[in-house]
Amino acid sequence: MIDFGFDKLALIGAVALIVIGPEKLPRVARTVGHLVGKAQRYVADVKAEVNRSIELDELKKMKTQFEDAARNVEQSVNQELHDTTRDLQQSWQDSGFGAGTAGESSSLEPPPLSYQPPRKNWRLKRGAMPLWYKQRNGVRTRAQSGAARVARFRPPRASS
């Protein structure tokens, strides 16, 4: 980059004062300052965009590495599970329990498990909460309209 020292800037200012004149020099200096600021902002934006694209490429590389590692772990777990299952079946058959016919051995196998989501019954959960706990923590036990709540907490009228 060009190195501007104080002596070079003073020389440029003296030449600009002679060429442009003292009346127009402040306006020209302000314009040059605005242009230099715009150029600096543009360069900063370009640098930020380049840095973002580099970081994005690095993140994509990391993502592929993690996906590959996850696939490798999954394959090794599946392989170990398969080996363990095979060894278990082999030991089951060697022990004499699986020595019967195919129909008998299939009846000894447990049925395949399927996922069942937990049953959520909030009414039972709310009903199982003791009344003293509800009263202490301010849990409403009865539905009440807004107008009824206002009327309930309204101060009594003074009789005249």
TrEMBL record:
It is found in: Cell membrane; Membrane. Part of the twin-arginine translocation (Tat) system that transports large folded proteins containing a characteristic twin-arginine motif in their signal peptide across membranes. Together with TatC, TatB is part of a receptor directly interacting with Tat signal peptides. TatB may form an oligomeric binding site that transiently accommodates folded Tat precursor proteins before their translocation. This is Sec-independent protein translocase protein TatB. Residues 151-160 have a biased composition (Basic residues). The keyword Nucleotidyltransferase does not apply. NCBIfam families: tatB (TIGR01410). Keywords: Cell inner membrane, Cell membrane, Membrane, Protein transport, Translocation, Transmembrane, Transmembrane helix, Transport. Belongs to the TatB family. Residues 73-121, 133-160 are annotated as: Disordered. The lineage of its organism: Bacteria, Pseudomonadati, Pseudomonadota, Betaproteobacteria, Burkholderiales. Its main location: membrane. Pfam families: TatA_B_E.
